Amino acid sequence: MSKLKKTIFEGAATALITPFKDGGIDYEAFGKLIDAQIAGGIDAIVVAGTTGEAATLSHEEHCDLLRFSVEHTAGRVPVIAGTGSNDTAYGIELSKYACEVGCDALLLVTPYYNKATPKGLVKNFLATAEATDKPIILYNVPSRTGVNITLPVYRELAKHERIVAVKEASGNLSAIAELIAECGDALDIYSGNDDQIVPIMSLGGKGVISVFSGVMPRETHELCAACLAGDFKKGAEMQLKYLKLMNTLFCEVNPVPVKAASALLGLCGPEIRLPLCEMEESNMQKLKSVMAAYGLL
């Protein structure tokens, strides 16, 4: 790791859902969600990311959510703001606001639908890095955005002092291994897939930005802690123990199942915004059955 770059967190960060009530954000429930995550030993939180249904938040809601998160968390864990957009200028506006209200870092998803060229991706991320003063985590999730960050793009972006990490959800372990081999001294790598925490950490990854931890924060923290301590045998055992629930939380498009699971746990209401909608009944029964098998219900 370059001496000029500091690690934002090691271990498990939760990609928080955004609870809604009667069409608006349920801040009472959101505060309780944050407290429950911190009580569960989570190492950082991601607010208003893709799991937080950022695409359906108004500008005012997005900003209010970031400000509330910083105030409520009160420095207990790092707050990472989801501020990526397929409109670079708007993403910069959100990112500047996140910096102003005290978020600790920015999580920037690749611009979706536009299908920027490699050159366009570099220019997009560098524009945000130059306009802001907080560390940046790049988010690569081609299955959702239609765009993949390639190694040459990573090489170029790794040169910037404020681009410090990557959430890798491509699912391509060979490509992730190459990324760590070539850029691991300048970029921290976090798994973006719960089912790949141990393989990525065994290659030198620093942890996970997780959906699973929204339901089981302590277990996700402990899994990562085992890997950070070099106990990959324990990490692998935990990965496999919880694999069925990790997979079930993606039986429909994220964040539909994890929000349903959170509602079943009494953490928030089940309200979700179109174009997402409530789970199919067959999948809801599957989710309930798996959660019960893990002693959650």
What does this structure look like?
This protein is an alpha/beta fold and 297 residues long. The protein is built from 13 helices and 10 strands. It has helices at residues 27-39, 59-73, 88-100, 118-131, 142-145, 151-157, 173-183, 197-202, 217-228, 232-241, 243-248, 256-264, 281-293, and strands at 11-15, 20-21, 24-25, 44-47, 79-82, 105-109, 136-140, 163-168, 188-191, 207-210. Strands 1-4-5-6-7-8-9-10 form an 8-stranded parallel β-barrel, surrounded by 5 helices. The protein has a two-stranded antiparallel ribbon with strand order 2-3. Helix 3 packs parallel to helix 4 (118-131) and helix 12 (256-264) crosses helix 13. It is globular, with a radius of gyration of 18 Å. The model has no long low-confidence stretch (mean pLDDT 96).
The major pleated sheet works out as: 8 strands, parallel, barrel
The shape, in one word, is: globular
How would you write the strand order of the largest sheet? 1-4-5-6-7-8-9-10
Provide the structure class: alpha/beta
The residue fraction in helices comes out at 40-55%
Taking all Cα atoms into account, the compactness measure Rg is 18 Å
Mean pLDDT: 96
Helix and strand pattern? EEEHEHEHEHEHHEHEHEHHHHH
Q: Which residues sit in consecutive blocks of at least 5 with pLDDT less than 50?
A: none
Number of helices: 13
Distance between the termini: 42 Å
Q: DSSP strand (E) fraction? A: 5-15%
Number of strands: 10
